Amino acid sequence: MMLRRLDKQMGGHLLGTLLGWEVLPSVCIGGAVGWFGDEGGLRAVSTAVGTAQSQVGVAVLGVVLAALAILIVFLSDEYVELLQKAGLGVMADIAPFKYTMTVAALTAASGVALIAIGNTVDTWLLRLLFGLSTFTFTYLLFVACQLVEFLSEHMRLRVMQIEARRAADEALRQQRKKASG
Asked: How many CB atoms lie within 10 A of CB 93?
């Protein structure tokens, strides 16, 4: 019940993402790496893989924060009204950013865990950790693509807003020209 309420607040983004097709390949890839990976090979690359995953997670986190900042800069009364007409609220509008940031943070954290304990834990825990970190990394790639799609929709709405404002300004100019001439 709580998950559905949270999903509604996020404009349907939460369950649509959690139950989306992207989860299955991410789970399969993470599971395959964790289950079938050679123990010696996993231990040998745990630091390098953890470093790469933590760097990618932090980089995506930075890009998402920058994108959110840009969106906030362009936030205006007209734009909020346009979002509401499109069926989105401001909180639902921020949800994909929050979700992507959460997955990016989990990716970075699992990468750091690989670096910190990847060479010292029992085999079963190493496999679990590698599977989890591979899952979060793969899932982050899909979620980041979804955010790009979401931002593309924002661009379309922003262009509509600018075009509507230009048309209104032109109509006002024509009306003033007609009234004065």
From this structure: 23
pTM higher than 0.90, yes or no? no
What is the 8-class DSSP label of residue 87?
A: T
Query: Within the chain, how many helices (H) and strands (E) appear?
Result: 7, 0
* Ramachandran bin of 11, using left for φ above 0, alpha for ψ from -120 to 50, beta for the remaining angles: left
Task: Determine the residue type at 44.
Answer: A
**Each residue of 27-36: pLDDT tens digit?**
889 989 989 9
Report which of 5, 1, 9 is spatially closest to residue 98, judged by C-alpha positions: 9
Is 3 within 8 Å of 88 (Cβ atoms)?
no
| Closest by CA position to 135, among listed 114, 165, 159 | 114
Indicate the burial class of 29 (C-beta count within 10 angstroms; 0-12, 13-18, 19 or more).
middle
| Distance, CA of 63 to CA of 67 (rounded, Å) | 6
User: Between 90-117 and 123-180, two packed helices, what is the crossing angle to 10 degrees?
Assistant: 150
Based on C-alpha coordinates, what's the Rg of the chain?
Answer: 22
